[in-house]
Amino acid sequence: MSTTSEPGRQQTGEVDILEELKAELAQDLDEERPPHAGPLAQVAAGLVTLALGLAGTVLSLGYGLGSLTEPGPGLWPFAVAVAVTALSLAQIAFGRSAQDTEQFTRSSVLTGLGVLSLVGLAALLPVIGFEVPSLVLMVVWLRFLGGESWRMTAVVSVVTVAAFYALFVLALSIPLPRLI
C-alpha cells in the first residue's frame, strides 16, 4: 500500500528528472548555437532594414494611399513599410545588446539564395506567367534549400501550384499572368 508521502516523493522525483532533462537540452542547444553576431551586426541589420522600409514608404506613396474607406493600391505597402521603418529604428536604438543573433556562416547563404529566387520569380512572372516560375521556386526551396527528397519536392510543388491556380485564378478571378 502506498502512503500519502509516496505520491509527493514520486512527483518530486519526476520534477527532478524533468529539470535535469531541461538543463541537458539547454546545454546541448548552447553547444550547437553559432557564435553571437555582436552589436555591429545588430546595427548593420537595422540600417539595411531601415533603408528597405524608407524605400518602401517612398515607393508606396507613388501608388497613392487613398483613404481608409477607399484605400488606394499603396496603402497596405505603406503601412508595412512604416512598420518596418519603426522596427528598424527600434533595433538600431535598443537592439545592440541582444544576444539572439548569429554570425553569418556558410549556411546564411541559403537565405540569400531564397531572396534571389523570389527576385527571379518576380522577373519571370510577367514574361512566362506564374505557373512555371512558381513551380521552379517550389523545387528550389524544397529540394535545394530545404533538402527534401525528390518525391516530396515533386508532390508538394505540383499540389501547391495547382492550389494557388485554383484559388487565385479560378476562385478569385485574379488576373495573374499565366500560361494556361
Automatic annotation (TrEMBL):
Keywords: Membrane, Transmembrane, Transmembrane helix
Annotated transmembrane regions: 43-63, 75-95, 107-130, 150-174
Domain DUF1468 residue range list: 44-177
Calcium as UniProt keyword: no
Record has Transmembrane helix as a keyword: yes
Pfam families documented for this protein: TctB (PF07331)
Protein name in UniProt: DUF1468 domain-containing protein
Originating species: Terrabacter tumescens
